[in-house]
Amino acid sequence: MNTFKDELALTEPPADEASIRRRSLFAGCGAHAIHDGLTDLIYVLLPIWQSQFGLSFAQVGLLRGAYSGMMAGFQLLASRAARRWGRERLLVGGTALAGLAYLLAGQAGGLTVLLLALMLGGLGASTQHPLASSMITDTHEAGGGVKQALAQYNFSGDIGKTLIPGLVGLLLTLLSWRASVTLMGLLGLAAAGLLWWLIPAQAAESSKPAKTAKTISGKGSASGLRALIVTGTLDSAVRMGFLTFLPFLLKAKGAGTAGIGLALTMLFVGGAFGKLLCGYLGARIGMMKTVWLTEFTTALLIVLAVYLPYLGLMAVLPLLGLALNGTSSVLYGAVPDLAGAGKREQAFAIFYTGTIGGGALAPVLFGSLGDVTGVPVAVMLLAATLLLTLPLSWSVQRGLDADARLA
Fold first, then answer.
1. Domain ranges in the chain?
2. Which CATH number is associated with domain 1-206?
3. Major facilitator superfamily (MFS) profile domain: from which residue to which, for each copy (predicted)?
4. What share of residues in the chain are helix, strand, coil (percent, to 5)?
5. pLDDT of 65 strictly over 70
6. pLDDT(79) > 50
C-alpha cells in the first residue's frame, strides 16, 4: 500500500503536479492561518498592555500600527527579496521572526520593548501575503482552479484569526499574559519548521510564469484599479480601527478578558463565512451591489455597537463580522480583472500594501481621536468614513465594465 512519501516519489507528471499543488496549498493556507492569527492576537492583548503599562489610546494605536505598518511597508521588498533568496527561505524566515517577536513581547517590561517586538513581528509577517498567494497561484494556474485555491487561502486566514485569539482568551484564564504570549511565540517557531518541510522545491523559487498558464484577458483599467485600491484602503482602515476599539467598547459594557476573547472569536467566525458568502454573492449580483450592501450594513452595525448592551452586542457580532470582512473578498477578486495581462503580481502587491497600510494608520489616527473625543465618538466617525466607499465602488464597476467591453 503506497504511503504519502511513495506518492510524492511517483515520476508521472500528473501525480507530481497534484502533489505540488496540494502541498503548496497546505503550506500557503497554514502560513496564512498562523500569521493572521498572530496578527489579530494583538487585539486581545491591547487592553492588558494598556492596564499593565499605563498606556494612552494613542500609544495603544501606535502598538497596533507598528505591526501593521511594518507588514505593509515591506511587502514589496519581500517580493523582490524572494527572487534572490527564494520563497521558501523568506516565508520560513518571516514566520520564525514572527514567533521570535512574541517571545520578546512576553519578556517586555514597557512600551519600548513591546514596540520593538511588534515591529519585528510585522517585518516577519510582511513575507506571508505576497509570497504565499503567488506560490499558490503559480502552482495552480497551469491546471486551473486558481480562484478556488485562493478562496481557500483567504478562508484559512480567518480560521487563524478565530482560533488563536480564542485560544489565548482561554489561556489567560489559566496562565499569565506573559506565559500565554510566550506559548504563541513557540507556536510561530514550530510553524516555521513545518513550512520548511512542507513547501515543495518546485514552488520554493520566485515567481516564474508557467508556459501552460492561462493569462488574464483584457487590458485592465488603471482608473478602476486606483479606485479599487482606495476602496480597499478605506475598508481596511475602518476594519482595523473598529477592531482596535472593540475590546474597549466591550470592557465598558462589563466584559472581562475571557469575554473579549470570545467576542473576537464570534466576530472572526462571522468574518470567515463572510468571505465565502460575499464571494459567491459578488459573482451573482455584481461587485458594486455587494459592496454597497456589505458596507452600509457594516456602518449601521458599528453605530449599533456603541448603543447596544453587552449581550445585544455579542448577539450581532457574527453578522457584523460577516459584513466587516466580506467586502475584502469581493474587492480582492476584482484585482486581476482591473490589472490586465502581465501586471497581476504588481497589482496584488500594491493592493495589499494599500489595504494593510490603511489598517496600520487607522489605529494611530483614530486612537488619537479617541483620546480627545472618547471611544464612542471615534467609533461613530469610523462608520461615517466607511460610507465613502460607496461612490468609489461605482468607479470600480465602471472600470470592470470598460475592461469587459475591450476583452
1. 1-206, 217-407
2. 1.20.1250.20
3. 1-401
4. 85, 0, 15
5. yes
6. yes
Verdict on whether the full-model pTM lies above 0.85: no
C-alpha cell at 305: 455597537
DSSP labels, 334-383: HHHHHH-TT-HHHHHHHHHHHHHHHHHHHHHHHHHHHHHH-HHHHHHHHH
**pLDDT bucket at 3, cuts 50 / 70 / 90:** very low
State the pLDDT at residue 205.
Answer: 56
The count of other CB atoms within 10 Å of the CB of residue 230 is: 17
48-56: list long-range contacts, CB under 8 Å, 24+ apart: 48/172, 48/177, 48/257, 49/114, 52/177, 53/110, 53/111, 53/114, 55/111, 56/371
Give the list of residues 6+ apart from residue 5 with CB closer than 8 angstroms, or none. none
Express as a percent the part of the chain with pLDDT over 70: 85
Contact 336, 217 (CB under 8 A): no
Compute and round to an integer the Cα radius of gyration of the chain: 21
User: Are the C-beta atoms of 372 and 198 separated by less than 8 Å?
Assistant: no
Q: Which CATH superfamily is domain 217-407 in?
A: MFS general substrate transporter like domains (1.20.1250.20)
1-206 against 217-407: fold identical: yes
Distance in angstroms (rounded) separating the CA atoms of residues 101 and 124: 9
C-alpha to C-alpha distance for 262 and 268, rounded to whole angstroms? 10
Cα–Cα distance measured from residue 153 to residue 223, given in angstroms and rounded to the nearest whole number = 28
